[in-house]
Amino acid sequence: MMQGRRICALVQGDVRVSDEPDVVMTTTLGSCVAACLFDVRRGLGGMNHFLLPDRPGSADGPGAAAQRYGVHLMELLINGLLTRGASRAHLQAKVFGGACITDGLTDAGGRNAAFVEHFLRHEEIPLVARSLGGRRGRRVQFCPASGRARQILCDPVEAAPPRAPAGAVQWGELEMFQ
């Protein structure tokens, strides 16, 4: 999938659209989600990479700020495709990510996965492939011109007890170095 291709790496908050047959979009995900949308008839697709940060205690309430961020990136992706000539009626989606990779914290990955599935249902964009949840990160490769995608599961991260480096002075949750 990668040989003879131009690689376009995405990080959190990125959105890319292309119809070039030699482009491969790639990203690495943990609790984040990447949505790959494409119009296979037009040979045009795009990918985003979003983290839906929850801000507990915000004036908007839990999840509200995160949902706006997700909506914003999904809308940027859809509008980018439509601007380049995609037909909304021919859009299809493949989604990846949403893992729960850290014990003891809120399940941001689960909320991200639920959000993207709900968004696509609401927008009536068929979800033709998904790999969401689990406990492992993923590397995703997406060919926007053909809609082909593949993922490579990352090795699981083993939890190790926190260890302060030499010379560190512990002050609650903060480590100060001398």
Question: Given the C-alpha coordinates, what overall shape results?
Answer: globular
Query: How much helix is in the residues?
Result: 10-25%
Number of helices: 2
Biggest sheet descriptor: 5 strands, mixed
Uncertain stretches of 5 or more adjacent residues: 53-67, 168-178
By DSSP, the count of extended strands is 11
Tell me, rounded to a whole number, the average pLDDT.
83
How are strands sequenced across the largest beta sheet?
A: 2-5-4-6-7
Q: Given the helix and strand composition, which structural class is it?
A: alpha+beta
Write the element-wise H/E pattern from the N-terminal end onward: EEEEEHEHEEEEE
Beta content comes to 25-35%
Question: What is the gyration radius calculated from CA atoms?
Answer: 18 Å
Q: Please identify the oligomeric state.
A: single chain
Distance between the termini: 49 Å
State the main characteristics.
178 residues, alpha+beta, five-stranded mixed sheet, four-stranded mixed sheet, 2 helices, 35% strand, disordered C terminus
Give a verbal description of the structure.
The chain is 20% helix and 35% strand. The chain is built from two helices and eleven strands, in the order βββββαβαβββββ. The strands form three sheets. A five-stranded mixed sheet has the order 2-5-4-6-7, with helices on one face. The longest helix is centred in the middle third of the chain and has 20 residues, at 64-83. The model is unreliable at 53-67 and 168-178 (pLDDT under 50).
In terms of topology, how is this protein built?
Blueprint: E1 6-9, E2 15-18, E3 23-29, E4 33-39, E5 44-50, H1 64-83, E6 91-97, H2 108-122, E7 127-132, E8 138-143, E9 148-153, E10 168-171, E11 174-177
Parallel strand pairs: 1-3, 6-7
Antiparallel strand pairs: 2-5, 3-8, 4-5, 4-6, 8-9, 10-11
Helix pairs in contact: 1-2
